[in-house]
Design goal:
single chain; two-stranded antiparallel sheet; 273 residues; mainly alpha; globular
Length: 273
């Protein structure tokens, strides 16, 4: 899961396998995800993953295909989708679903069930509320989600670090408010950007975000990780959360339409393997 999320952090800033500075890192991450999806006699490492790790890998592969339009990435994604059964209980379920919709390689209808399941849950905390806003856009319930977004912005300025899943919450809030409208998104950006700048943890030449640097006292979200793993998890999700990745802009539709129906490697911007 951590490799998938770290790779997503690079992809969200349009770093790919051809990037001068980070190309080798991105290529290594994508190759690892592809190897995990490979099957031998019907068995793959991916099938042994926990549900959140499965969804993170699907999310990574779908985003990578949106960016690279690489046949090997598409094939790996189609393999894991055969055994992926998201139910909306993990935040990454919805993000993976949205990435699949943008990739246009699978019928969208079956995955709308994830959005419907999230919308049916009681909004007991900010994480669920943020996911419901995103799910509302996936289900095309725009009028409902705009009202929810205004309420979320009013309540989330200082409270998100106190939740059970604070890092996933701030990721979901950022994406939800970006989808709402410009004033709401701008207001959140003015709150969250300074906090990101002020709460980095410096370790040698590297800068990280950690639960501690964000003032998160305790969280079941990162309890399973070692200190090093927790730094990777928190930093990756913070990068993906802000600024909102440009990869969801309409230009991707044009790119995918221009390359649809071809296996010509010369038409693909990035060769992963």
């Amino acid at each position: 899961m951590l490799t998938a999320l770290a790779t997503l952090a690079y992809l969200s800033w349009r770093e790919d396998a051809t990037s001068e500075r980070y190309g080798a890192t991105v290529k290594s991450g994508l190759n690892f995800a592809l190897s995990e999806a490979e099957e031998t006699n019907g068995v793959s490492a991916w099938k042994q993953f926990e549900p959140d790790a499965k969804s993170a890998t699907v999310w990574c592969l779908a985003e990578a295909y949106c960016l690279t339009v690489q046949p090997s990435v598409r094939d790996a994604l189609l393999r894991v989708l055969k055994d992926w059964q998201p139910d909306g209980s993990c935040p990454f379920d919805l993000f993976a679903t949205r990435a699949i919709r943008l990739s246009r390689i699978e019928p969208v209808a079956p995955y709308k069930q994830v959005a419907i399941a999230i919308l049916a849950r009681p909004a007991t905390n900010q994480l669920v509320l943020a996911l419901q806003i995103l799910a509302g856009y996936e289900a095309r319930q725009h009028s409902r989600t705009k009202a929810l977004a205004s309420g979320l912005l009013d309540s989330c300025s200082n409270d998100w670090p106190r939740g059970e899943f604070p890092i996933a919450t701030v990721l979901s809030i950022s994406h939800a408010l970006y989808n709402a409208d410009s004033p709401v998104s701008t207001a959140w950006d003015r709150q969250f950007s300074p906090r990101c700048c002020q709460n980095q943890f410096v370790c040698g030449t590297n800068r990280w975000w950690t639960s501690h640097s964000f003032g998160i006292e305790s969280s079941t979200e990162t309890a399973r990780f070692s200190p090093r793993e927790e730094r990777i998890y928190t930093t990756a999700l913070t990068i993906i959360a802000h600024p909102y990745p440009y990869r969801h802009l309409p230009l991707y539709y044009e790119q995918l339409e221009n390359s649809a129906g071809t296996n010509d490697e010369s038409s693909v911007r990035v060769t992963v393997r």
